[in-house]
Specification:
single chain; about 300 residues; alpha/beta; TIM Barrel; eight-stranded parallel sheet; two-stranded antiparallel sheet; 12 helices; 4-hydroxy-tetrahydrodipicolinate synthase activity; lysine biosynthesis; DapA-like; cytoplasm; Aldolase_TIM
Amino acid sequence: MTQRKGSDYAGLSVAIITPFADGEVDYSRLREQLEFQIEAGTKCIVPVGTTGESPTLSHDEHERVISEVIQCVAGRAKVMAGTGSNSTAEALRLTQRAAKEGADATLQVAPYYNKPTQEGFYQHFKAIAEDVDIPVCVYNIPGRSAKEIDVETIQRLSDLAGITMVKEATGKLDQCSAILSTTNLTVLSGDDSLTLPMMSVGAEGVISVVGNVAPKPMIELVNAATQGDFETARNIHHRMYKLCSNMLGIATNPIPIKAAMQMVGRDTGELRLPMTPLDENQMEFLRETLFAFGLEEAVATT
């Protein structure tokens, strides 16, 4: 089988949270989380995406978080920097800076709120891909961006050398299949609970939220599916399904994952407005979910 563009990013990538303490980015805690991911064997770190609360970071914070991640990881994993924007000029500036700092790739979300035409999507991603020398992962997430990038547009984008990956978060397996059957792009799941179904039709990994607290089981699932051991992969999938669905269904990401990380002692749980914490009932539901999965550290009350 011909190797796909972007296959270097097959496996588990983790969309890491941005830790806060007293309203400021907690860089010490960020480095601790990076070491946890590297020890677990995470293939790629994805800072300042949706899970990293990029919409509420200042430009200076956004750039510094990326720089800190690159410096701390120091080649022990790949870094795919979240540098997308609904302004093409801003996305270009952020991506240029990340590339200069040493990012291995860039995650580019579909421009949100202004709802471009399909031609607008194409021209936006084309401008970025032709401006920088690092691989571009197109992030298709209509639930956040208010508009879907059509398969035909992704097919056009696949002809550009710099476009190598798609983070597919439409929730549609047909969309994943259509991209894989008509392009040479590497597809990465954008939904933890759909990782195995997507890999069954040819996706090569996941950019994970749940991996913030449970990277090793996600690595085991992806590795088993990659090796064609779908019985093992299914067993892990079913074990993780409730954790994944509850984590992302109880409230808007990254509210639940930050609460979970607080429960297991890996974060303060602090969010920036307009994100607000889980209520008491939601916290108890999440705690029970973590217990059922086997994260006994969640005994700590919050």
